Structures are given as C-alpha cells and as structure tokens.
C-alpha cells in the first residue's frame, strides 16, 4: 500500500509492505518484490520515499559486503531473504535506516515469539535522505500485535523552501501506520552537516548482470587480470554471483557479477558508459586481452590531438572497459563512466548526498559533450 502526502509543500511517498512468510512459494515472493519494485519506480526521484514493513528477512548484525546500504548495527545472522532485502535497497539507492544507529538489542529486536527474538521489520529511505535521519529505534513497550514491536524513525527533512521534522511510526504486521509531522527550523544541525567529513565511505563495488557467470569469471581473471574474491550460489532465489577485483575488498573496488538462472542476455541500455582500468602499458594489456580471446573495440594508441594512450575492450556481455595509461595507481579499476541528463543536478547530488568532491570538468564543444 502506498500513500502520497504533501507536507509544507514537500511530497512524501510512504509505502507499507508485508513480505511473504517462510514456506510461501517462490512465485509469490517474486510477485511481492516485483510489485514493490514497481511502486518504488512510480515515485519520482526528487520526492521523499519511506518504505516500512515486515520484510520477513534477517539482514544480520554487520554490513559484510553491503556497507553502502547496511550501517553495521543490525541484529542476528543474515539469511537468504535478508540478502534479498539488501539487494533491493542497493538496486533502488535506498538504505536500511534501522541499521545506521547503534542500539542495545532491546531497541533492535522487532519480533518476539516463544523466546525467539529477531529483526524482520525495517524502515528504508533514499540514500540521499540518510543524513536527515536523526534516530531509528524499536519501542519495546509498544506492541503493534502480539509479537511485533513498533519501529520509529525520527528525521529532519530539509525541503526546498522549508525545513521540517518528521516522526514516522509503522505497524508492520498488518500494514498500517501513522505519520506525525511538524514544522522545524530550516537550519540542519551541525552534526548532520559534518557527517560526510567524519565517515569513511568509499566505492565498494558495482553490481551488474551477466548471461554466463563462468564465462565472465574466465574473461575477468584471464584477460583483465582480476582475482576472484568470492563466489556464492543462492538456489532458493535462483541467482549466483561473483566478486572480482585487483585486490582485497577491504581496500579495493570490486565488480559484482550476478547471474539470474535462465537469463542469458541483457539490454545494457545507454546510461552506462564504461569502466576504466589504469595500467602502465596499455599496448601490452590490449594485446593480452586479444590473446585471451577478448574483443578490442578501439586499438591502443594516443587520443586524438594528445599523447595519452588509451584502448577500449568489450567483455562477453558487451560491457566496455577503457584502458588508460596511468602507472603507479593504487587502484587499477579507477573510473566508472555514466551518462546523465543534467550534469549540474548530478554533481550536486554526488557532492551533497554522497559527500564526494568535484575533481575536474572537461568541456568538449566539438563533440557536444560536457564531462
């Protein structure tokens, strides 16, 4: 169920969800996630979004590969359904608000029955709204049903014209909720403004889908020189994936290749451009890729009008890799090129929401391109 509220001129979309329980069919689970996916896609990216409900999965106490969406303060041991929750949040640029605030177990446990305690009720928000979240906790004395506990999110949303404080209460077991909002100061707290400076975030991995996982692993390890960092198969969810990179995930960027059972090809679209691999010898790497059966779409050589040497290679699924002449870099997998519809808007998002810094811009009017 979804409702759309307009509070002081700010549009807030609120979705209440109840995922299928253990024992329900895979088809029913797919219908749930597909329906939720459709609801989320209906919400414009410039509007607030809050998802609350019983998602019937355990995201686990620690991030373990999902630090982009899991704050590291969860409860229990992650299971397959918990992975589905984290994959969904990753796909939609959401975060699990419950997991970003260090709490005692009593303020993390959302469900208790027969001496069994778990965390299955969650509040999800857009990643760029995380800084607005002041607190998220369970109220053990406020039972929503005989077994579920109330999960509350306290957030200060800084709107285009007004600031406001929102306190959201969700009763997940029967998909009902209440929202209380009140006007607040338009000046965010110093702590929120300092958040990007204090955290230790970095790019962890890029997730994309491939048609033949073993074929892709062979290409990435033999042709590109990456290492297979870890591999997992999840038959219950009908997918498997592999993490590859030029070094351990603790210090290096990784690609997460995902194979969905029975799907052998994907439409890459036009938004994704390419990855970039830095190397001390573009000519040699390009030749090695060809020797291993890879495809070079642009032969190694200087860029037009310059001296920097580049080449372009294509992986078995059509994803492009630019090989660039940059020796001595600590991270060979050094760039991701994406196409955007409004560069100024995107720069603002990456700076203010994600805490990045603008390194440089390149204007190529002869090609009608601004980078």
UniProtKB/TrEMBL annotation:
Any one Gene Ontology molecular-function term assigned to this protein's record: metal ion binding
Cofactor(s) needed by this chain: Zn(2+)
Active-site residues, as the UniProt record annotates them: 322 (proton donor/acceptor)
Cofactor mode of binding and number, as noted: Binds 1 zinc ion per subunit. In the homodimer, two zinc ions are bound between subunits.
Keywords assigned by UniProt, alphabetized: Dioxygenase, Lyase, Metal-binding, Oxidoreductase, Zinc
Entry EC no(s): 4.4.1.5
Pfam families: Glyoxalase
One biological process term in Gene Ontology: methylglyoxal catabolic process to D-lactate via S-lactoyl-glutathione
EC class (word): lyase
Binding site for Zn(2+): 256, 274, 322
Record-level GO cellular component terms: cytoplasm
Residue span, VOC domain: 202-326, 332-371
Recorded catalytic activity of this chain's protein: (R)-S-lactoylglutathione = methylglyoxal + glutathione
Source organism superkingdom: Eukaryota
Protein family membership: Belongs to the glyoxalase I family.
The protein, known as: Lactoylglutathione lyase
